Amino acid sequence: MSVVFSMGLFWAYGQQEADSTLTSEEIQFRDSIAAINTNNVLIQEIQESYNAGAEDFASSNFKEAITSFESVIVLDSANADAYFNKGLSHKELKNYEVAISDFESAFSIDDSYFDAIFNIAKCYELLNNKELALSTYDRLLSIDPSRAEAAYNQGVLYYLQKDYDNAIKAYSKAIKIDPYYAYALNDRGSCFRALEDYDKAIADYLEASKNDPQAFIFNNLASAYRKAGDKDQAIDFYTKAIQSDANYEMAYNNRGTVYFESENYDMALKDFKKAIEINSDYAMALCNRAAIYHLQEHYTGALADLEQAVKLQPKNVTALLNRGITREMLRDVEGACQDWQKAYQLGMEKANEYYINNCE
């Protein structure tokens, strides 16, 4: 073994001696080539790990994606894309605090990585920290005033808190940035509708429908007309919603409600049936069809619909009240009293009147 070892040392020494015959320029060239080759290998390893992470993310293998992006970061600690995509993976796994840290790292490496700030705000939303979400959207708008979706998301947060005045301000900011932002126009219209300013609501919904003629926008526009007392326009726009999406059960139910209010019971029944055909678990449409059946003295049909509605929504006090009335018509007084009593216990004062008048 000692002989082999000595030979090995001799070979290495010989190689070193051979190199000494190179000029300084040749040595520099050799070292440059070696450095390039090493760098190319490193770049290839980084690219392979990054691509593996991207493929895993696209396949919803988020844990594996994180491992791959971590490998990239080990090789290249200044890789903002790796941090960002690792953050997206953690976000998908609901590891929101870790995701926020990754997004902050991406932004600290590349201060033009505005999507990182946007996703930090989204994580705060998902953590139900509305104040930090709002302030982070402000942070994004201060560095990138063109981000209309940041202002829009602020509007959504305010709207969910029923802070309609601030929601309107946020949506208006989004619309100023992008005048064709249909969702912002639609949602600002919903704020005006909640504040019973139907003229402004209608104006916003009309503009939104021009920019993006989707069924839900036509449905909202119709509802604003209905609230404003214009039933003809309401029916027209519910019809447009249905023409835009033939399976939009809400529009059928809502149009049926306008027909019901107009005492056009045949058309109302037709719409309620269609809504239920599309969605058999649509409790509101079941209750509405039951009301038509009740008027037609088809009490067994009404009871069947109300049974299903209560099964779907056990705390639906209107369904309980009406099921009680229907049961009474079918001579099930005990069942009727139970329904009225339960509806009263859930907070419906009118149900107590029925209970007192019929059960005591």
Short précis:
The chain has 360 residues and is mainly α. It has helices spanning 2-19, 24-58, 62-75, 80-92, 96-109, 114-126, 130-143, 148-160, 164-177, 182-194, 198-211, 215-227, 231-244, 249-261, 265-278, 283-295, 299-312, 317-329, 333-345, 349-359.
Which strand-content bin applies to the residues?
A: under 5%
Rg, Cα atoms, Å: 33 Å
DSSP E strands, number: 0
Helix content range: over 70%
Average pLDDT rating: 90
Give the SSE order as H and E letters. Answer: HHHHHHHHHHHHHHHHHHHH
The geometry reads as elongated
Q: Cα distance, first to last residue?
A: 109 Å
Structural class: mainly alpha
Biggest sheet overview: none
Tally of DSSP helical segments: 20
Q: Can you give a write-up of this model?
A:
The termini are far apart. The protein is built from 20 helices and no strands. It has 360 residues and is mainly α. The protein has helices at residues 2-19, 24-58, 62-75, 80-92, 96-109, 114-126, 130-143, 148-160, 164-177, 182-194, 198-211, 215-227, 231-244, 249-261, 265-278, 283-295, 299-312, 317-329, 333-345, 349-359. Helix 16 (283-295) packs antiparallel against helix 17 (299-312) and helix 18 runs antiparallel to helix 19 (333-345).
SSE order and pairing:
Elements (H helix, E strand, L loop, with lengths): L1 H18 L4 H35 L3 H14 L4 H13 L3 H14 L4 H13 L3 H14 L4 H13 L3 H14 L4 H13 L3 H14 L3 H13 L3 H14 L4 H13 L3 H14 L4 H13 L3 H14 L4 H13 L3 H13 L3 H11 L1
Q: Characteristics of this structure?
A:
20 helices; elongated; 360 residues; 0% strand; mainly alpha
